[in-house]
Amino acid sequence: MNSPCIISKPLWKILEHTGIIPAWERIGATVHLVGSLKSGLLAKSRDIDLHIYTDTLDIAASFSVMQELAERLSLKEIHYNNLIQTEEVHRMACSLRG
How far apart are CA 45 and CA 48, in angstroms? Predict the structure, then answer.
């Protein structure tokens, strides 16, 4: 069985290689790594979970980041959740799958 450290190394390289975090930061977003990669408890799910926060919800700016990522990376799916009606007012969720 692989240790979480061995499993997580490729995921950290993906974060670095894709430039996903700097892409969001360019529009003034704060990106929080959450989930199994942050906790180091990688089991079946080998994904990267990010929560993206902005001072104001700017859907056009958010979609511009997703457009940039889709044009630059080999992605199969992009999911967008507008969480304006939740407790975390200025948060959106974006799920990318390559």
Answer: 9
Q: How far apart are CA 34 and CA 31, in angstroms?
A: 9
* The overall pTM is greater than 0.85: no
89 Cβ neighbours under 8 A, 6+ residues apart: 57, 83
Q: Residue 1: which pLDDT band, with cuts at 50, 70 and 90?
A: very low
Q: How far, in Å, CA of 50 to CA of 17, rounded?
A: 16
pLDDT of residue 45: 57
